[in-house]
Please model this.
Amino acid sequence: MSVSVILLLLCIFFIVFQLRPKRPKNFPPGPAPLPILGNILHLSLRNPLKDLERLKKSYGNVYSLFFGPNPVVFIHGVKAMKEAMVTRATDFAGRPQDLFINDLAKRKGVVMIDHGPNWREHRRFALMTMRNFGMGKRSMEDRIHDEIEYTMKTLEKSIGKTLSPQMMFHHASSNIINQVLYGTRFEYDDTFMTETIRCFTEIAKITNGPWAMLYDTFPFIRKLPLPFRKGFENVETLRFLLLGLLNEHKKTRVPGEPQDLVECYLDEMDKRPDDPLFSDEQLNRFAADLHFAGTDTTSNTLLTGFLYLMNYPHIQERCQQEIDKVLEGKDRACFDDRHNMPYMQAVIHEVQRVSNTVPLSVFHCTTKDTQLAGYSIPKGTTIIQNLTSVHNEEGQWKYPHEFNPENFLNDQGEFVKPDAFMPFSAGPRMCLGEGLARMELFLIMVTLLRKFDFIWPEDAGKPDFTPVYGITLSPRPYRMKVQLRSSA
Ligand code: HEM
Ligand SMILES: *[C@@H]1O[C@H](CO)[C@@H](O)[C@H](O)[C@H]1NC(C)=O
Model:
């Protein structure tokens, strides 16, 4: 009797031991995983951040965790980040392909697709098109300035009062992307506008929540009618909305005379009729990706920027003095003016540093067996970059833990960009909207600061700078008081 019990226990022990995921040889260290669950119990589903911080303290800048049976490597600090993303570039340029977000994206688009010809062709197309802006007469700057006019109107209506800027900035960055993609803007209450915002917000919330984490960890629950289904419904709604818009373009466009990115894409499809990579379905996902990637990112950075500028009024004032001097006699700012505005440049970069708008970048994946920080990492391993860790890293910044534009100024007051500045990540997968985003941040901030003073309302209490956690970080909702500048 007791012998058979012991044998049975031994058997169970042996099976459990066998099922336990094992770290490959010389893999980055981390806590011991459990069978099936991996390290999921090491993280609280509600606030995993605290636990991850603790793990980094025990295991160092490159450590690993198991999500279910799959190992994931976390990278911190500028040294490891550069080694992976820049030195070993292609080795780390993949995207994991078995996650909730891949199923949502249906393996199309550009942001989530793996390293390979489809990604390369679409990335190249997007960069080329946005760089040369071979889209009719209106330049990128014109399109941004057009939208700023509407932001100014919203602000003018609130002069002497307070307003909540969330929707204002969201609409502005959304419409700038719309101008680039579709050559048109949408009124704030247009169904396209309200529905895309609703879908994107819900998708972001689900992707970031506990259900997506469970979906990623336990493949057997994927077909069940659980709350993550809502994500797929939203993707369908979005696809349908875009389909209508794209079909309109097909009817109205003049081939060879594209006015926007979508029409450039349609021209590209004409040029390569037999290329399966450029297709209607792919265009639909591609447009959705650029829209999604370019909206919350920019607007949350702006929100953080104005939160700080209101609470550091002497910094706001110094920006305004520089703007007045450089723009004297001109009716509007252009992106090239940045070269004469070192202080403004420093402030915008400092805003991006403290915002950490995309704190964990987008997940990467190794494309072959490789090395990092002396460890071996097999092909197909998920890589999570902690960009915040670089922006707060001691030894990389004059003032790592405070808001201070001096982080980007040298002794002569000239603008300098330290190596550890990487809000857009680095390497072959680096944000492809960087150029557009930087132009938006500069033109919007300069134009608004030239005309208005932004004041933290007297009754607003102490500001809370701790961000709300998400795929993108945003400040807690706040109100701003707006005044016309006396000198303007
Ligand atoms: C302040 C604004 C923005 C920030 C902070 C930001 C940040 C990022 C980051 C961290 C990544 C991940 C890079 C990586 O995986 O290593 C990324 C990717 C991407 N971003 Fe942005 N982004 C911003 C604005 C934009 C805009 C305006 C667009 C639209 C044109 C855009 C389009 C993309 C795309 C398409 C990718 C995927 C690139 C790829 O996988 O090859 N982003 N962005
Ligand atoms: C990223 O790094 C920062 C700073 O080191 C830390 O506070 C945060 O918890 C880390 N996040 C993750 C997800 O590891």
User: Anything to note?
Assistant: Residues 49, 52-53, 74, 76, 360, 386, 388-389, 392 surround 2-acetamido-2-deoxy-beta-D-glucopyranose (ligand 2) (CB under 6 Å). The beta strands are 62-67, 70-75, 162-163, 364-365, 370-372, 375-377, 382-385, 452-455, 480-484. The CA atoms of residues 91 and 367 lie 5 Å apart.
